[in-house]
Design a protein that fits this description.
three-stranded mixed beta sheet, 18% strand, 376 residues, alpha/beta, binds arginine, single chain
């Protein structure tokens, strides 16, 4: 046993022994330490899920006809090709900034599948690793995913997860959900301005469900929102798994279609938080005292096809460290605001990707950010 007066120098050799190496291959505790390795999603093989209440709860108004026309079929090829080009360019930019990039395997999601209790005409995609993988320190959590279409999304990450496991990561899949009718509620708040007690999720408390992207990491403090894919039981599962050395703070934003927290708040550096000015009326108590930058509106034309999310993905940026941040190239107001705030924005075109439901933060999952051995 280590006594409380043992110095770090005495502890370190034991720590190294326990860890088996000076540094972990998988280690990321926040959104701003220097990024060393990242997974970047793939749009090739994407399919459009069939229209159902879970989709209705979160997609922008006016998209039902797209889902009715393409549901169960491959995502329109022109949209896939344009987003795929942007992803390849993002990969090149990340590599040129010194980041190791890994990709999920390319699967065809336009295939029907079933469990003994339900069936689905297609999957979705492996475009958004952030939705599925939650890295907390050296643990990789695989989310249960509440959408039936996303039930087998993990297949695309399987080879990477085994590689990380073989390199020492702790690998923690959430309990496999049943996704039976009892999980889904038709009494959900749909685009209504209801918050607090009155807001109704599209998922019940039948079993724990969450998407990784409803969590955002600030070291030992993690902020989470309940959403149309994340319930209280899912949050409690993560809380108990991480144990008492982490504090999970639940917060509700004024989001009429909540699904994924990373277009509501985005920490860029210690004490610096980019916020969605429409959704953030108050910050979680743990972030009191942080400097807040209200994100300027997106410059996106109203005609741009936004199938799955709002233009607030303008603020869905990824930090390479406490200064460098990747921002969509046509979002000049945000680029300017970040420069004035002391950051070095790296403009990268990504509008075609927006159509798939997110931007840089969604399209990536950090695997390793620089850390000291004594963080472990
Ligand atoms: N639901 C958010 C919005 O419409 C988009 C969040 C996207 N995030 C993600 N990880 N896929 O503003």
């Amino acid at each position: 046993m280590l006594g409380k007066h043992d110095s770090y120098e005495e502890v370190k050799p034991i720590n190294d022994l326990l860890c088996g190496a000076a540094k972990k291959r998988v280690y990321s505790a926040n959104e701003w330490d220097t990024l060393e390795e990242v997974i970047v999603g793939v749009v090739d093989g994407a399919a459009v899920p069939t229209w159902d209440p879970m989709i209705e709860a979160v997609v922008p108004d006016g998209q039902e006809s797209f889902f009715r026309a393409y549901g169960g079929k491959p995502w329109p090829a022109n949209e896939v090709a344009a987003a795929s080009r942007e992803l390849e360019n993002l990969v090149a930019v990340l590599k040129s900034e010194g980041v190791t990039v890994k990709r999920p395997s390319t699967e065809s999601f336009a295939k029907p599948f079933s469990t003994p209790n339900w069936s689905q005409q297609s999957g979705l995609y492996a475009a958004m690793p952030r939705d599925y993988l939650l890295v907390v320190g050296d643990v990789i959590i695989e989310s249960p995913m509440a959408w039936r279409s996303r039930y087998f999304e993990g297949t695309a990450y399987r080879a990477l997860l085994k590689e990380y496991f073989n390199n020492g990561a702790r690998w923690l899949p959430a309990p496999r959900p049943e996704l039976s009718a009892e999980l889904f509620s038709t009494q959900f708040s749909n685009g209504q301005e209801l918050f607090g007690e009155e807001w109704q999720s599209a998922v019940t408390e039948f079993e724990p469900v969450f998407d990784a992207a409803d969590f955002v990491r600030f070291g030992r403090d993690i902020v989470v929102q309940r959403s149309h894919v994340t319930n209280a039981a899912g949050i409690e599962w993560v809380r108990r798994c991480l144990g008492p050395s982490y504090t999970i703070h639940e917060h509700q934003f004024h989001d009429a279609h909540p699904m994924h927290i990373d277009a509501s708040i985005m920490p860029l550096a210690p004490g610096k938080l980019l916020i969605n000015p429409e959704r953030v009326k108050d910050v979680p108590a743990v972030l009191k005292g942080w400097d807040l930058l209200p994100a300027p509106r997106s410059t996106l034309p109203a005609s741009h096809p936004m199938r799955m999310c709002s233009p607030w993905v303008v603020m869905n940026v990824i930090s390479l460290d406490e200064r460098r941040v990747i921002v969509e190239a046509s979002e000049e107001p945000l680029i300017k605001a970040l420069r004035n705030w002391g950051f070095e924005p790296i403009p990268v075109p990504f509008r075609a990707f927006y159509s798939f439901g997110g931007s840089f933060h969604c399209a990536t999952a950090d695997i390793r950010r620089r850390h000291a051995t004594n963080d472990l």
